[in-house]
Amino acid sequence: MSSTSLEPLSAVQLRPGRPPILHVESPECASTWAAEHREALRAQVTEHGVVLVRGLGLREADQVRAVFAGLAGELMAEREAFAPRQIHGPGLYSSTAWPTNQPMCMHHELSYTLECPGLMLFACLEAPSEGGATAVADAERVLQALPTALSERFEREGWLLTRSYNDEIGASVAESFGTDDPAAIERYCRAHAIDFAWQPDGSLRTRQLRGAVVRHPLTGRRCWFNQIAFLNEWTLSPEVREYLVDVYGEDGLPFNTRFADSTPIGEDIIQLINSTYEAHTAREPWQAGDLMLVDNIRTAHSREAFTGERQVLVAMAEPQRLADSRPTVEVARS
């Protein structure tokens, strides 16, 4: 790597409670700048797990797509989405559709899939008037801070994700699997260790057992890597949970998480996981034009509640098949 490539990154700011931030003077061509400094930027992500680049002046989807391609090459198509997104071209999406007054707690993108993105890319085209940060948390430190008995149980047994697809809440079958052909959906489920059952009304329910603690493919360090808290019923606001349970029943929630033996995860455990995330959270309000790169395995991310308009584009890259993402124990069946 040339000294020219390293020089602009020597001013990365490291401050407690904030992600590493790199301030750059607006280049003539953001995509050219990104391609030229790809190695140096990726080195920062390897070292810190995340880097926020401020000053690129990103303004439109085509520009963002070119920047993302210069940094990560081919972008991934999302599969098994839990909520819909707008598509802005191959591999380029809006942030997940989610109520603006409801936070999305810490999670690792698609940590319940057998092939997950190793890198997340975010670009802010329009910043909200208040809130809306994409906050981050170090998964190694979160794992170390959790009670040993709890983390060891999840590491040993894994966690169970249950989903009930409907046309009202969350991603539809077609949005999640990229097709509404039952045969194709069944082939996908069999190939990706997903237990499935078609209901009398034609809807689909699935169950999948996944690892909760994985080793980072580059560093070998153990990371708390899952969506146990985020997709659990107790992370929902009380009024939303009450409504969903009333409409769909305990076993028909659009998504929920359980212990590997199918027993419920208590509200106290979910609160503990979320409070541990909060204790290790770094946040920086978005500014229009910002770029952020996140190591999806080492670093969890969230989306905070906000007011005003917010437009953040997202891409996933560098697919990883983690050997420890699929426990060897059998999925519990009720």
Question: What this model shows, in words?
Answer:
- With 334 residues, the chain is an alpha+beta fold.
- It has helices spanning 3-6, 30-36, 38-48, 61-72, 139-145, 148-157, 173-177, 182-191, 238-248, 267-279, and strands spanning 21-23, 50-54, 93-94, 104-107, 116-126, 130-131, 136-138, 159-164, 195-198, 204-210, 213-215, 222-224, 255-259, 281-282, 291-295, 299-303, 306-307, 311-320.
- It has a domain at 141-275: Clavaminate synthase-like (Double-stranded beta-helix).
- It is 27% helix and 25% strand.
- It has a 6-stranded mixed beta sheet, covered by helices on one side.
- β11 (213-215) and β12 (222-224) form a beta hairpin.
- α2 runs parallel beside α4 (61-72).
- It starts with a helix and ends in a 14-residue tail after the last strand.
- Mean pLDDT is 92; it is low at 1-6.
Characteristic terms for this protein:
about 325 residues; alpha+beta; 18 strands; about 25% strand; globular; antibiotic biosynthesis; TauD/TfdA-like; iron
Largest sheet: 6 strands, mixed
Number of strands: 18
The CATH superfamily of the domain at 141-275 turns out to be Clavaminate synthase-like
Q: Count of DSSP helices?
A: 10
Domain TauD/TfdA-like: 33-315
Protein name: TauD/TfdA family dioxygenase
Cofactor: Fe(2+)
GO molecular function, one term: dioxygenase activity
